[in-house]
Amino acid sequence: MKNGVLISTAWGALRRNVSRSILTMLGIIIGVAAVICSTAIGAGSQAAVLKQIESLGANLIIIIPGAINAGGVSLGTGSRTTLKLSDIVAITANVPHVAAVAPYSQLTSVQVIGNGLNWSTTIGGTTTAWPNVGNWTIAQGAFFTDEDVRKVAKVAVLGSTVAANLFSTGGAVGSTVDIKSVPFRIVGVLVGKGQTGMGRDQDDVVIVPITTHEQRLTGQDYIGTIMVSAASANAVSEVIDETERLLRISHHLDPADPDDFTIRNVASVQAVREATSATQAILLAAVAVVSLVVGGIGIMNIMLVSVTERTREIGLRMAVGAHGRDILLQFIIEALTMACAGGIIGVGVGVGISFIVSTVAHWQTVITALSIILGFMSALVTGVVFGFYPAHRAASLSPIDALRYE
After folding, report:
1. Which 8-state DSSP code applies to residue 204?
2. Could you tell me if 195 and 146 lie in one domain?
3. Is 61 in contact with 266 (CB distance < 8 Å)?
4. DSSP label at 151?
5. Angle at 227 between CA 224 and CA 228, to 5 degrees
6. CB neighbours of 339 closer than 8 A, spacing ≥ 6?
7. Suppose 277 and one of 23, 45, 115, 384 were both cysteines; which one would form an S-S bond, judging by CB atoms 3.0 to 4.6 Å apart?
8. Domain stop point among 259, 292, 319
């Protein structure tokens, strides 16, 4: 029999039982949609992690103060006041393979007044190395200078969120803002980075010289964080080891004393998050596989029922000259038709759900051509695998027994 006749016959058989065919395809639709969603969410999570690593800075190492134990109660990481500007100088001078080192201290929920408006934001204090360490660039004006740091200058660089809320019409550079009743001249505006993976707005910040931060805003002589950028990814481990050894010496710690600081490798933290995202994607993929198997079983069951219902038809076809391979191909085409239709609908549903998840839940999703092809091909493979047994059973019928079947 010609392939066109086989396809037309298979399509006609499916149209005679539209409701049953749609219900049979439901498992395939769910499975393919799950494949599309799982790959989109997994790819989106990986892209978000990579974007966050890039936004934080290359090969970044974070050093924060250790914890204080008061009466047997730990006050938490960062409660000590052990990190000083002298540590910055020591790390820069003595630790090899360091690209840049910058301090960072911050005041949160501070009212900044400018242009007749006010905005509650975070005030960060640092040095001129901070843009390189944190991978920041200037959109307008310039960053403050080493001379500004030495002279405790009252200058500030605005994050894009602060600039947009205080100077929505522009003109921020050269203007003045008041921070804790101290006037600061704006010398620059940073390029926006957007939110972190935890939803924090990185651009809602005002940056001032660390000396100004300490002497004019906080009155503190310690810093909250030291940010170290290793020269390369391969040098990160060595920089961590050398920095730990140097800080223990400079902080006069005995061998038996615990560290009074904590060193964190941002890349390793992000790697854990990436692994978690990959695990979530695997779980979603497992759901997709189960759905496809259920859909395949549904196709096989319906095809077996169809073989039983059409036994006399099969016998008649064989009696007028149809070969076993023609019957086999006809039923495989029926199974493939249901799988193909289910795959197409499933791709549409999967893409739609991915967009909804991205819009409503604010999860980044990335739909690729590979995921669509993978979902559709998995539907076709399911149709062939689970449709072969009913097709083989139909092709193996004896024409005489089939004609006698009631």
Report:
1. S
2. yes
3. yes
4. T
5. 150
6. 25, 28, 299, 379, 380, 382, 383, 384, 387
7. 45
8. 259
Does any domain span residue 15? yes
Q: How many CB atoms lie within 10 A of CB 230?
A: 24
Put residue 171 in one of left, alpha, beta given phi > 0 → left and psi -120 to 50 → alpha.
Answer: left
Q: How far apart are CA 45 and CA 234, in angstroms?
A: 25
Residues 247 and 289 occupy one common structural domain = no
Residues 362 and 287 grouped into a single domain: yes
Question: Which domain-ending residue is among 203, 235, 259?
Answer: 259
Its domain, for residue 277, covers 3-52+271-404
Q: Per-residue DSSP letters for 308-326?
A: HHTHHHHHHHHHTT--HHH
Mention every residue, 6+ apart, whose C-beta is less than 8 A from residue 245: none
Partners of residue 264 on adjacent β-strands: 62
The answer to whether position 133 is within a domain reads yes
pLDDT tens track of the chain, all 406 residues? 455 665 666 666 667 777 777 777 887 888 888 888 877 877 776 666 656 555 555 578 889 887 655 444 344 444 467 899 999 999 999 999 998 999 999 998 999 999 999 999 999 999 999 998 888 999 999 999 999 999 999 999 999 999 999 999 989 999 999 999 999 999 999 999 887 655 678 899 999 999 999 999 998 888 999 999 888 877 888 999 999 999 999 988 888 888 888 888 765 555 655 566 666 667 766 777 777 777 778 778 877 777 777 677 777 777 777 777 777 777 788 788 888 888 889 899 988 988 888 888 677 778 888 778 888 888 888 888 888 887 777 777 776 665 555 5
Residue 99's region, left for phi above 0, alpha for psi from -120 to 50, else beta, is alpha
Distance CA 406, CA 393 (A): 17
Q: Is residue 60 part of a domain?
A: no
Is 150 found in the same domain as 26? no
Do residues 40 and 201 lie in contact, with contact meaning Cβ atoms separated by under 8 Å? no
| Alpha helices, H only, 135-265 | 146-150, 160-166, 210-212, 236-250
**223 and 327 housed in the same domain:** no
Domain count for the chain, please give it. 2
Q: Angle 357-361-366 (CA atoms, 0-180°, nearest 5)?
A: 45
Cβ(402)–Cβ(318) below 8 Å = yes
Q: Is residue 59 part of a domain?
A: no
Residues 88 and 232 in one domain: yes
Q: Are residues 165 and 91 in the same domain?
A: yes
